Amino acid sequence: MLLQTDEQTIEDLRLFSKRDQPGIYDIYNNTSTRGGEAVLEQLFRHPLADKEAITKRAGIISTFASLDTIFPFQAGMLDTVEKYMSHAEEKTDGQKAALGEKEIGNGVTGVIELLHAVRDFVNNGDIQRIPELEKERTTISVLLNAPAFAPVFNEQPKSKLSYAAVTAYDLLFRNREKEKIKEVLRFIYDIDVYISVAQVANKRKFIFPVTHPKRTGLLKLEGVYHPELKDPVANNLTMDHSKSVVFLTGANMAGKSTFLRSFSTALYIAHMGFPVAARAMDFSVMDGLYTTINLPDNLGIGASHFYVEVLRVKKMASELSQGKSLFVLFDELFRGTNVKDAHEGTVAITHAFAGKKDSMFIISSHIVEAGDALKQKPNIGFHYLPTKMNGNVPEYTYTLEKGITDDRHGMIIIRNEGILETLKNGKKE
Q1: By CB count within 10 A, which of 243, 335, 362, 389 is most buried?
Q2: Are residues 100 and 232 in the same domain?
Q3: pLDDT at position 92, please?
Q4: Are residues 104 and 198 in the same domain?
């Protein structure tokens, strides 16, 4: 069972690199194989929504982390095997893609060496100490003990083979048993991902969240921070059935968007069964996770920013109407319209969200006046990111506090930059 999400959320959380900006994926990618990289990407695109599956994956990775396991297969050998096996597919004319005699010889030798290494790993490696992988370990062990592979284990890895032996093994590997060889490679790619993420957890001191069943309504993060920041400020926030909605306020530059990304990224990554950038975390499994942080205008259909926002809210309403347990985040809800409509819309939608207590919502807004009307709902909590004034210079703590702020320092910043003087008197040389 997979967590429901969408491309807007993936873009908001910057999961993948874009132009010169690295993504969250890059932080976790310490893989040794191209296949491992591809598997890792798929895991990022398809988080889990099943407690047992999340707990199993987290258990595998945390054990590899505690054992400080090193990837047991040589990257160069795997490159050779991958290239060799990629030519096992037939062309449209029914013929196999051509490989030179040397490439076939290297490929055969590589597969033999790899199968020996895999057998040693499943029989003697750290995988034996990971009960969550016992089924996979047994499957690969049975596969390697198939009669077809008996001659392989009579060979010494890297030993020189006769032309006849190379030809026979080539037929075995790229034709008769190619699906089994590919299954071995898929097993290796999974192991590559688990060990890669485990090493990242150790290096960065990421923690493994505690997973709770669906609809238990708990989301507690202590010391959460954004993993891309060099000197992050950590924050705490707890949500549950008694506080299923958070109304977040704060001046521009106070750190709202960074906090929102930190919090929602941790929840997304936790649903992958991966370690997160926090001191501690408990979360109930959700059906879906949707964020709206950088919502673009849809000029292709002639839609204004406000109308795109309305369509986004409509999509959330449709998902919620199906009884799903969702985490929904809106950064600056209805920023695309006038203050009066934004105020009324924010109050109405936030009130409606508060009625969906199996889901959780964070709404950030500059419309601090909406807070008075929202206080009517007991399950709406209020937090803000403060601005401290040092004379005429605003300073930001980036530390979450309870309540609502009316900090407005836009004009102070405008004056500090001398914009009005420049417009009035011209730029001084």
Answers
A1: 362
A2: no
A3: 47
A4: yes
Q: Give the C-alpha separation, 139 to 133, whole Å.
A: 10
**Residues 371, 225 share a domain:** yes
Pick the closest to residue 356 from 330, 386, 395, 321 (CA basis).
321
The Cα 119–Cα 124 span in angstroms is 8
Q: Mean pLDDT in runs of 10 for the chain (429 residues)?
A: 97 92 96 96 98 98 98 94 84 62 95 97 97 98 97 93 96 96 98 98 98 97 96 97 96 90 98 98 98 75 76 96 97 88 94 96 93 94 91 88 78 66 68
Counting Cα atoms < 13 Å in the Cβ hemisphere of 420 gives 6
How many whole angstroms from its chain centre is CA 129? 27
CA dist 148 to 96, 145, 154, 216, 347, Å? Answer: 22, 8, 12, 51, 69
DSSP sequence for 198-250? HHHHHHHT-BPPEEE-TTS-EEEEEEE--TT-SSPPPEEEEEETTB-EEEEEE
Residues 225 and 187 in one domain: no
Residue 84 belongs to domain with CATH number:
1.10.1420
Is the domain of 189 the same as that of 215? no
Same domain, 108 and 222: no
Last residue of a domain, one of 173, 204, 235: 204
Residue finishing a domain among 148, 176, 204? 204
Domain count, the chain: 2
- Residues 231, 178: Cα–Cα separation, whole Å: 49
Report if residue 9 sits inside a domain: no
**Residue 374 domain-assigned?**
yes
Domain enclosing residue 224, as ranges: 210-425
- CA nearest neighbour of 239 among 385, 109, 421, 363: 363
CA distances, 213 to each of 50, 270, 353 (Å): 8, 13, 22
CB neighbour list of residue 289: distance below 8 Å, 6 or more residues apart: 3, 4, 5, 9, 47, 264, 267, 268, 271, 326, 327
Q: What is the pLDDT of residue 94?
A: 52
CA 332, CA 260: separation in Å to the nearest integer?
A: 11
- Write the single-letter amino acid at 99: L
Residue 212: CB atoms within 10 Å: 16
Phi-psi region of 205 (alpha: psi -120 to 50; beta: other; left: phi over 0): left
Do 181 and 238 lie in one domain? The reply is no
Sign of the four-CA dihedral 299, 304, 310, 316: positive
Identity of the residue numbered 213: P
Q: Going by DSSP bridges, is the β-strand pair 380-385/401-402 parallel, antiparallel, or unpaired?
A: antiparallel
CB atoms within 10 A of CB 132: 17
